[in-house]
Design a protein that fits this description.
The chain has a domain of 75 residues: Nucleotidyltransferase, domain 5, CATH 3.30.420.270. The chain contains three helices and five strands. Helix 2 packs parallel to helix 3. It is elongated.
Length: 146
């Protein structure tokens, strides 16, 4: 009669750490999101005024929405953000924006019903204001030209 001997595995005990890594990653993402949201809700501080210094650069691009004119009008409706702008004031407003942020990007979103002749003065106003990064925005899709 032979006796069987059982050997203990040489690797010792094994612990699966995959669930632990998943939990830690979820906690990291949670704290990053909460930190980002909390940074935007800083307390309202009454800052002092100054006549010197440079204003902060805007983070996003300048978006000009060009909407087809209402019935009876010939000029398209211009919107910078949510603010309606007259075409005669556009050059001055863009110049002021370019003084604040000289490398700002301009995105022109024009209605497809408008002809190029209605959009061209806006491009000229951007050039006159010294804004060099001007992009015409279009929706993705449509047919490719042959």
């Amino acid at each position: 009669m032979r006796l069987r001997t059982f050997r203990k595995p040489s690797g010792g005990s094994h612990v699966n750490v995959t669930p632990l890594i998943d939990v830690v990653m979820c906690l990291i993402i949670f704290y990053l999101m909460v930190g980002h949201l909390a940074a935007g809700r800083s307390s309202s501080v009454n800052l002092p005024t100054s006549t010197t210094g440079r204003p902060a650069d805007k983070a996003g691009p300048i978006v000009i929405n060009v909407v087809a004119p209402d019935e009876g009008q010939t000029e398209p409706i211009l919107l910078i953000g949510e603010e309606r702008v007259l075409q005669s004031q556009l050059s001055k407003i863009l110049k002021d924006m370019s003084d604040i942020s000289p490398n700002a990007e301009v995105q022109i979103r024009a209605d497809r019903a408008l002809s190029y002749g209605k959009v061209a003065p806006i491009l000229t106003a951007c050039r006159d204001a010294g804004l060099v990064s001007v992009k015409l925005v279009a929706a993705k899709g449509g047919k490719r030209p042959a």
